[in-house]
Structure formats: structure tokens, C-alpha cells
Amino acid sequence: MFSKAIYEAALTSEAAGRLFSNITSSGTPDLSFLATMRVLLHKRLGEDTHIRLSCKAVHQSSNDISYATTSERMSWFIPDSVHYQTPAEHNIMIVYTTDSDAGAKMLETVRANIRPGKHYLNGYVLQEDLRIFYARKLNALFCHNEAGRNTIIFTDKLELKQFHVLQMMIPKYLPSLFKNNPLTDNETTLLKSLGNKSSVEYERLIEEFARSLDIRSEIIRTKLAGFETAFERMRLDELKDEIADFERDYENYLSNLRDISEKIQDRKYTLAGLECSINKQTEDSELMEYFMCNKNLSLIQVTGSMMEFVVHGYADIYDVDGFEQYAGNHSGYMYSNLNSIITKAQIEKLEKEGFCHFQKVYNDSILSQERG
């Protein structure tokens, strides 16, 4: 059992990930297990079948496990992936404790709950032969489901050398894949090399398998993929942006045209109404009737839409508020066309003086009539 970590190997490169996208791993101490699985399983898996190796660390202490309920313990120990598996999946799951005293508690709990009538790992059975085989190397329990597609390994710790030696029994973890397709001599040699004290032979064999699969060609394809079409992709993105700009401009133009069309149509309706009103006007208008009936109005001049007229009446008919408003309006008729030597303020003063004189005369006349 060697303790050297394997992080770089042809079968774990980016190109290999592309070639073996249905054989993956997560949470593992190094990448050796993934490389071994890809050697053994790439020909034994169907195109639509996946296998995943996952490692789950249990961080609860021995005391935590002792005082927890069985339900709580099993929720800590059982990987979530157990509950979400499909018929096209195979799984190898390794569960290990990080507290040195917690391992025995975990294994005791798991053993007690992998029995008929227990629902936590329904359909799983213990593989006692594997437990006995590994007894001198690690303290672990091995459980597989009845379909032979999944194996869960519970162990009290997971050091590199233990992680490596666990790979020796991959065919036993996934018996359904090896039932009609036994190991070749080269594959058997690879698995045996995992028990050596040195990793030299294992790494050499992995590289030989990689060469036989032409990983180099796949690496070249991965690194140069799309390089020759880089310019075309850039131009493609530019064209997409230009088209989007043109489409926005087009929509704006259409919106403006719709607005202008609506304004033209609205004014045509108004025009038609005015023409109809002018053409059908045979009787006197209300304005004409008003001037004819009101004897206090004298029309002076009409020019286009401008009208000049004088309002006159008896001295006893006047409106003080109306006069104040008229005198204060410097934009009115009486303030237009003034000589340059006369100011609007002078005209306003004149008007108010005259009005005050009129009021006095009028009031004196009323008093005289009342005395007489």
C-alpha cells in the first residue's frame, strides 16, 4: 500500500475528463481511484450509463453519536446520493469519520441497521467477505444493493494508503458490470500493483493504458478545439450585436411612424369636421345673434380672428372688481400702442383717478335724489 498522492495522470487530465465524462468522482483524497475506474470501466459501461465515486466525511464526535437518535445518526452516515439514484447510475460511496473515536460508533450503528425490517438502507446487504479480506488493513463495513450497481463503504478513517488499497476490489463493488466481462491479465496486474509499497508500477501501468487509448490525440483535440474558428466566432458575436442594434432601430422607427400616422389621422378627422361645419353653415351663428341682440355692443373692426368692439351702458351699471382687474392688466387694449413719453403706470393712474371721480359724482347724485 503506497502513500504517494496521485494528482496528475493522463487518465485524470482535462482531455480524459472529456473522453470519460460518464466516469467521475468527488471529495476524494487523490485521483488514483478515478484513474483506476476509467481503466476498468470505460469498456464495460454503456454510453448512457454513469458511475460516480464519492467520499463523505462524518465530522461528528464519539459523544455526538452516542447521544443522538438512530435517525439522526443514519442521516449523518448515509450519503445523500443514495436517495437520488436512477437505473442508469452506478455508485461507489466511501463514508469515513474524522474523529478517531467515532469510527467504532458509526460501524456499530450501521451494522445494527442493515438487517431485514430496517428501512434506513433498505435493499442493501453486508458483504462479509470484503470485511474479512480487508480486516488486517482497515476497519470497515461493505454494503451493496441487491441489483449489484451500488456499494457503500463505511470506514473508521481514510488515509491515502487505505484509499489506494480499497481500489483492489472494484469488481466486487460493481458485480453487475463484471459478471459477463471478467478482468483481463493486464487489469489484474494493475489492481495488484495498488498493494505495493511503491507507486512506480501502478503509475507505469496507468500510462500504458492511457497510451493504448490514444489520450494524446484527445489532449490535442481538447487544447486546439475551436482555435481555428476563433475569428469566425468573434465575427459571429459582432454580427449578433449589430443585428440586435438594427432591430432596436427598426422598432423605434416603426413606433415613430405609428405615432405620426395617428397624428395625421386625428387631424384629418378634425379637418373633415371643420370643413363640414363651414360648408353647412347657412344660418346666423351664436356670435352673430349675440351682437345683434346686445345693444350695448358696438362692433368696430374684424380682421381674421381679431375682433374690436366697444361696450357701453348707463352710469349706474358698473363693476368695481371688474374695473380693478382691467386696470391692473397691462397687457390689455388700453395699454397698447402708447406714446413713448407715456408709461403704463401713468395710464393706470389716470384710469383709477377717472373711475374714482365717476364714483364720487355717481354717489353724490344718489344722495341728492334721496334728499329730494
Ends distance: 144 Å
Low-pLDDT segments, ≥5 res: none
Task: Report the biggest beta sheet as strand number plus sense, adding barrel if it closes.
Answer: 6 strands, mixed
- Strand content bin: 5-15%
- In DSSP terms (H or I, runs of 4 or more residues), the helix count works out at 16
- Morphology call: elongated
**Arithmetic mean of pLDDT:** 84
What level of helicity do the residues show? 40-55%
The SSE string, one letter per element, is HEHEHHEHEHEEHHHHHHHHEEHH
* Class from secondary-structure proportions: alpha/beta
Strands, total number: 8
**Rounded Rg:** 51 Å
Strand order across the biggest sheet?
Answer: 1-2-3-6-5-4
Number of domains: 3
Per-chain topology:
Blueprint: H1 14-19, E1 23-26, H2 32-41, E2 50-58, H3 62-67, H4 70-77, E3 89-97, H5 102-113, E4 124-126, H6 128-133, E5 140-145, E6 150-155, H7 160-165, H8 170-173, H9 175-178, H10 185-193, H11 200-212, H12 215-224, H13 230-279, H14 286-293, E7 297-303, E8 306-311, H15 320-327, H16 344-371
Parallel strand pairs: 1-2, 2-3, 3-6
Antiparallel strand pairs: 4-5, 5-6, 7-8
Helix pairs in contact: 10-11
Describe this structure in words.
The chain is of the alpha/beta class and 372 residues long. The chain folds into 3 domains: 10-224, no CATH class; 228-282; 314-371. The chain has helices at residues 14-19, 32-41, 62-67, 70-77, 102-113, 128-133, 160-165, 170-173, 175-178, 185-193, 200-212, 215-224, 230-279, 286-293, 320-327, 344-371, and strands at 23-26, 50-58, 89-97, 124-126, 140-145, 150-155, 297-303, 306-311. It has a 6-stranded mixed sheet with strand order 1-2-3-6-5-4, sandwiched between helices. Strands 7-8 form a two-stranded antiparallel sheet. A hairpin with a 2-residue loop joins strand 7 and strand 8. Helix 10 (185-193) runs antiparallel to helix 11 (200-212). It is elongated, with a radius of gyration of 51 Å.
